[in-house]
Amino acid sequence: MIGRFSARFSRPLAVACGAVLILGTAACGRVADPPSQENNGVYIQAGPITYQLEISRQLNPYSTEDSQYVKGVPAGQGSLTPSQLWYGVFLWAKNQTNSPQITADNFDIVDTVGHHYYPLPLNSALNPFAWKAERLAPGGIEPGAGTIAADGPTQGGLLLFKLNQSVYSDRPLTLEIRSPSGKVWATISLDL
After folding, report:
1. Is the full-model pTM beyond 0.85?
2. Which contacts (CB < 8 Å, 24+ apart) does range 60-67 have?
3. CA neighbours within 13 Å on the CB side: how many for 101?
């Protein structure tokens, strides 16, 4: 009796399980609009340029390494209130098109309650890690090979943010890469 039951129901059961598996994984190949990625090391297309989040983290201006990242801050912006923290986002970019392209210079971080934070405009003459929009030839990368930013511990150009301590309860944070007109080209989930 069990043998007939198995033979009679195993094929329909296998077909049903296969259909459930196909439906369950169908969304896995879905493309987000704008493109969105989870965390460090993943490549993401934003406009005509491919970006990679090398690392993102809270910075300690009293450590030897991190003190280099908070240089070149505009006058009046160099100190934190007790409720603020320094946060660094280190990006790498590559032009994989066949024509020159300019990297983004329009970014923000958004928390889960809708607060937007914008990077401070760093003086790249004082801070060699500072991210700045660059015109990249086909195959060109930013930060450029042989630069302090490329060869340093983070291997990326720095976007420096002042965040409120409240972001610890308003996580996850999302980096938005925007077009010159402000349209969100891509988002990346950040660690904190």
Report:
1. no
2. 60/86, 61/86, 65/153
3. 23
Question: What average pLDDT is seen over the chain?
Answer: 86
Nearest CA to 103 among 133, 138, 144, 124?
133
Q: How far is 179 from 177, CA to CA, in rounded Å?
A: 7
Among all chains, which residue has been given the structure tokens 């030839």?
Answer: 137
Residues 6+ positions from 121 with CB-CB distance below 8 Å: 74
Nearest Cα neighbor of 51 from 95, 99, 88, 92 is: 92
The tens digit of pLDDT for each residue in 24-78 reads 433 343 344 555 656 667 799 999 999 999 999 999 999 999 999 999 999 999 9
Q: Which two tokens stand for residue 64?
A: 């030897």
Q: Are strands 184-190 and 157-164 parallel, antiparallel or unpaired?
A: unpaired
Rounded to whole angstroms, how far apart are CA atoms 42 and 115? Answer: 25
